[in-house]
User: Fold this.
Amino acid sequence: MIKVFYGDDRVRAKKAISEFLGDDYEIIDATDLAPNDLPNIFLGQTLFDDTRKILLRDFFTNSSVASELPNYLNTPHDIAIFDLKIDKRKESYKAVKDQIKFTEFALPPSPNFRLAFDIYKIAKHDGKKAVSQLAKIKSEEDPMMFLGLLASQALKDFDAKQGIKEKRALKALARTDLQTKSTSIDPWLLIESFLLEVSHL
Assistant:
């Protein structure tokens, strides 16, 4: 059985995924998968069990594998798919929307929503001010979600003006993202460091 969970309320989504899969399941990042990886995931067995419990993250962001999903609807495994967003205009969604259950977990709008968007703009000119503004909303924000928001702002900047500073900002952001996933340093410290760096790029 395949179920899709999506939205920015990761806490509620994780609870629902655990209710579906239990506490012991495989986690696979789908962003780097290729279509020829899918038979092993959806149909492959382990040495110890005929059925598997699998969480696929960011599956629909990888269009080459998402388009293959209709071929695996009869999987013998329990597979949860989790994406932050689902683009309901895409064919990959339309092809399976009537055959797979999609459940959204959306956070209520934060009163600091606008400020969260403004912090990147502030950081480009005044890193210290951006860090002080961040302090006002940190307790209500998830650092990884906020990093994603910074990435969307930086990409918009790059689309508008593909200059040296915009490229450097994207590289610095990619480095920060990697550090949050590969070190034990507090993600907020890494984000603050990025905000201070942006104004000097």
Summary: The mean pLDDT is 91.
